[in-house]
Amino acid sequence: MGAFDFLKNFLKKSRGKNGKEGPCAAAEKKEEQGPSSDLIFEEFSAIQKNAVSIAYSHAGQALAPGKSKIGGRPHVPQGFVWPYFEGADFDNVVKNRPLAFLAQFDLAEVKTFDKDDVLPAKGMLYFFYDVETQRWGFDPADKGCARVLYYDGDVGALSAAEFPDDLPAEYRIPEQRLVFSARRELPDWEEYAREGRAIGDWEEYDDARARFGCPPTEEPDGVHKLLGYADVIQDEMTEECETVARGIYCGDVRSDLSAAEKDDIRARAEDWTLLLQLGTLTDDDFELMWGDCGCIYFYIRRQDLRDKNFGNVRLMLQCT
Fold first, then answer.
1. Tens digits of per-residue pLDDT, 106-137?
2. CA 20 to 30 Å from 52, out of 23, 70, 84, 258?
């Protein structure tokens, strides 16, 4: 028997009778197909999170004190002190600058859409960021470039704060009224791809999550939301949050960390969760973009969120 005849007979046996797959080939194909949909969807059900989607529109007139909103003047209690940050801008000029007011949320209003019940039941959350320097967040020195303030007193005691004189007009966001809705989300591949996950290929994962009803976001810079998972533009950020929170610069690859420290950072990264994601903000001729079509992400440790401690929030900026 020649080599060609041997190979032909071998392939015939492996295919089985009538050209159908033999048991070995069928087993190999089943292994290539990966885990079953039941297994995948069971995992998805365990890791899905609720997000509070934010839609905004021009307010037209000043909103009543205590209303959730983007931009305008923050509604604050007596004794409020506007937050500042000292940092270098794009021209490397170091200066103490007022943070831009981004948004405020009436948590009693948001609570209806907080299906996972992770936010405080009442009170106000305020978000500020230094738009002039647009720090990326991967340097420990960036701490303070973004601030989240929490007030749980009488909403009736709130009044609109005046903008600081040294806050440029282009960083005074026009006031926007908000509409909330709830939706279920799965992490992007970069955050999902951890040890022990059911799927090992990003294309298969994106296909499976679409069938589950949580497809990936095509344009993250058009997404605004509280909670859920970040719509990643570059890479997942929970490990960066844990790294920089330890005082370690993570703007480049670190080769001086021990294997044990890297493993601990990876494990502790699970403690961090998204609090707020904001994309590009527009209103008529006003536009505020983060880098080039990017997003800013506020992250918080789960325990801090349960304790209503918003003093250790980390900000990350990603763009294309």
1. 999 999 999 999 999 999 999 999 999 999 99
2. 84
Would you mind telling me the total number of residues written for the chain in this entry?
320
Let me know how many helices (H) and strands (E) the chain has, helices first: 9, 16
Contact of 191 with 233, CB cutoff 8 Å: no
Residue 3 within a domain: no
Quickly tell me which residue has 């296909």 as its tokens: 207
How many whole angstroms separate alpha carbon 114 and alpha carbon 107?
Answer: 9
Look at residue 7 and tell me if it is in a domain. Answer: no
pLDDT tens readout for residues 140-165: 999 999 999 999 999 989 999 999 99
Q: How many CB atoms lie within 10 A of CB 146?
A: 26
Let me know if residue 290 belongs to a domain: yes
Residue 301, domain extent: 46-318
Q: Which two tokens stand for residue 154?
A: 């009488």
**Domain-located, residue 23:** no
What is the number of domains present in the chain? 1
Exposure on the CB side of residue 229, measured as CA atoms within 13 A: 22
